[in-house]
Amino acid sequence: xxxxxxxxxxxxxxxxxxxxxxxxxxxxxxxxxxxxxxxxxxxxxxxxxxxxxxxxxxxxxxxxxxxxxxxxxxxxxxxxxxxxxxxxxxxxxxxxxxxxxxxxxxxxxxxxxxxxxxxxxxxxxxxxxxxxxxxxxxxxxxxxxxxxxxxxxxxxxxxxxxxxxxxxxxxxxxxxxxxxxxxxxxxxxxxxxxxxxxxxxxxxxxxxxxxxxxxxxxxxxxxxxxxxxxxxxxxxxxxxxxxxxxxxxxxxxxxxxxxxxxxxxxxxxxxxxxxxxxxxxxxxxxxxxxxxxxxxxxxxxxxxxxxxxxxxxxxxxxxxxxxxxxxxxxxxxxxxxxxxxxxxxxxxxxxxxxxxxxxxxxxxxxxxxxxxxxxxxxxxxxxxxxxxxxxxxxxxxxxxxxxxxxxxxxxxxxxxxxxxxxxxxxxxxxxxxxxxxxxxxxxxxxxxxxxxxxxxxxxxxxxxxxxxxxxxxxxxxxxxxxxxxxxxxxxxxxxxxxxxxxxxxxxxxxxxxxxxxxxxxxxxxxxxxxxxxxxxxxxxxxxxxxxxxxxxxxxxxxxxxxxxxxxxxxxxxxxxxxxxxxxxxxxxxxxxxxxxxxxxxxxxxxxxxxxxxxxxxxxxxxxxxxxxxxxxxxxxxxxxxxxxxxxxxxxxxxxxxxxxxxxxxxxxxxxxxxxxxxxxxxxxxxxxxxxxxxxxxxxxxxxxxxxxxxxxxxxxxxxxxxxxxxxxxxxxxxxxxxxxxxxxxxxxxxxxxxxxxxxxxxxxxxxxxxxxxxxxxxxxxxxxxxxxxxxxxxxxxxxxxxxxxxxxxxxxxxxxxxxxxxxxxxxxxxxxxxxxxxxxxxxxxxxxxxxxxxxxxxxxxxxxxxxxxxxxxxxxxxxxxxxxxxxxxxxxxxxxxxxxxxxxxxxxxxxxxxxxxxxxxxxxxxxxxxxxxxxxxxxxxxxxxxxxxxxxxxxxxxxxxxxxxxxxxxxxxxxxxxxxxxxxxxxxxxxxxxxxxxxxxxxxxxxxxxxxxxxxxxxxxxxxxxxxxxxxxxxxxxxxxxxxxxxxxxxxxxxxxxxxxxxxxxxxxxxxxxxxxxxxx
Length: 1081
Prior knowledge:
Residues 548-631, 830-892 form the IPT/TIG domain. The protein is an all-beta fold. The protein has 8 domains: 7-124 and 343-442, no CATH class; 135-234, Sandwich (Immunoglobulin-like), CATH 2.60.40; 242-341, Sandwich (Immunoglobulin-like), CATH 2.60.40; 448-544, Immunoglobulin-like (Sandwich); 549-631, Sandwich (Immunoglobulin-like); 634-716, Sandwich (Immunoglobulin-like); 906-993, Immunoglobulin-like, CATH 2.60.40; 997-1080, no CATH class. It is elongated, with a radius of gyration of 52 Å.
């Protein structure tokens, strides 16, 4: 139970903030080795601790003995020493006169072994301080008197730690015979009620036999020092009129001693304390504490199993991070419940989330805090043997509140539910006890530092104020700490502040290491700690100044003769008493101050200046220097607008130059538009848009000297909207849109991210700006969201998409803000590598291959628009348009034009034959692809290049056919046909039968070209008249008919003197044939 005099948590807070800024940890773990030489003449257990209290080990050592040691798991890139103390009292707490020693220092930079040399244990001599009294206050309690004991802390500059001087206490009690209960006089029944109370820095001893009328005197002892005895002190009566009552459940043990319960408010000096004792407790045990003042309290209790009146090993306690908060405000409090469970030790793992800014920029990191405090047993060594995101083994060091270590894991976020295994060795055990601890949560519930920040007027009673977290844990307290921003030495801290507190005054608890110093830059953090010990720290930087200080200037750039307004503090109101200089090529160049107030100087830029900082000296004090540079040249400007996520214009938004708040403007109500001039003339800058209720929006990096007008708005998002993206508090986020040069969103683009810190980030895409999904940007908005960026990182964002060229955009990442910008893209120039086929008819399909076809706007053939389909970035399907001419295809995209090789348009020439005769039509020019025979469709058509002339010739069969003429595309009656292929053409060739034979059937006459055809048509009694020609057989008359074959006629079938000749043989196998003027050969 912590009641008085114990600096619980001080080094934990100091170390954590220091290492957050200066430590770069990795997956490696170094080992520190050396020797301990015991020259103290004493024996016992020696505890070794690395200089940051995170790592350490212990072992027993005899007087005069020298033993080696190793400390494993040292992960911080830092300068280390190892100090050791011999625990003569056996309490596991270092006292000022315990034998001690310290090693030489080593710089740890990698995962190797570093030898720190030999540590020699020697006996210090630290006397009690001159005005020290070991008894602070005897406090009246229900059923006992609580003696508030003072340990008389000694601060060692060599070790940068505080140690209690007192090692044991003796207590005397007497009955007060004074008529004034506030004064001890006429004492009787003086009795030494307790001797040798070991000082484990527990702060109190309970006298269960004490009375309100008792007086007490305490003697403190320390090795080798003169003892100090306090004066007699009466029991302080209860200070309040309220009561706190409830029930405590005791698990795992049968009580063998009294139960002591107290409520403590340590936010002031002195702390408020009220307590009660239950002599014979059971479980569950009711309690009532009376005399309680209004305040916010922690409930503490311990079950004094060995009945010695003080908390030590063997007793049962709540544990530091298992405390219940009790608020007393004008009435009694009932129904308080708490549980204590008997265990060998209280082992836990807590997470610390650190964010904010230092002199070196923003940061957001995490650490793991392993804490092991003995309860029923006394731990002597603790080793972390396994767990995620750490290098094991880790030897945990002992400090004033037990074994505790802070393992920094940088930006690696711990995972709730992750388990870590420990080996705890207890005093007297021969082997370690395996123990598992589990991460309960990671706190993102940051308070917001309000004041002080930046340059402020020096005030020794500086007020530190903050805003409560928007989503706090169920139960929490605040801790505020102030440290030097340069060497990180802690100046002041105050812890266990109730959640209702949102401001404190410097050193209100009288525990500061010194006063605030003027003109020294400091950093202060406010942390939120939940009931399990997990914490969220947020830090900012401030400088309390007595001389001049520059907060900003406007404009940020300009030329000779430009009027510049310098804003700040503590300027002389007499212009001549202020000296303002600009950077120059030959040194500083003085400017003329034309007007002066305490907070603003008006100056004119002199000739000969160069880009650089501005310096101010006022009334001989200074000089103060600006944090940003005045850039020489034409100042830049930016005109834009601000909207919310629903695209509603936002007025009243402050838009300012990042790092120089003097250059600022406000967006207009109704339109959300703004125009900001006076921006840097060169270099780069960013703009910040801020409005209450929204997270700040920070622009991408902008080149100085540009006059920019944009229609792409700043988008302000609420914290809830950003939370929906899975952004952890303390991290940055970028939202960017991928657009073309006209501002149109580009779909299908994939983000490329380059981190200046070498981090790996993941881009997400959203078609509605709310829900993530897809693997590339949506054509709806082109949106990319990159969450959980490391503060202070320089992120370069680009995009890729086949057929497009993109230009990167850079961002400076800030925590608790949204980086916004655009990635501009332009389609790449298309190219055509081929067409297939290379010729074709109107309406046919042509495939164009090449690259960068995604933004195709049109395709033409010889200047005529063609319908097309973009199949991919490398292929287009085109339909040859009607009426098209031979020429090149031209693909027109947003990136330009690309032409193909020659495409030949084809026209079809179709030939048919008709008539009673037979023959063949062939093409003789430009080729012979057409060879169309009567009665066949084969080779009767062909495609020819548009515009070419095709020559056709007709050849009748020599079996009695003649060519009768052309029709269609040709109309000649004889000769060849020439067709110009300016369109599809059709030609008909007519062949007629030559009348070589005539079949006489009564009054009917039919001509035939062949004897076989005439015979086939004849019936009995018919006459076949044949011209005087040669007919080639053989002939087979095999029908059951009787006919007359009469020959020797001319073309008009007039008889002649000639004969018809049948060649090749003749057979009459059926029927009969009568021949006349027919010769057989």
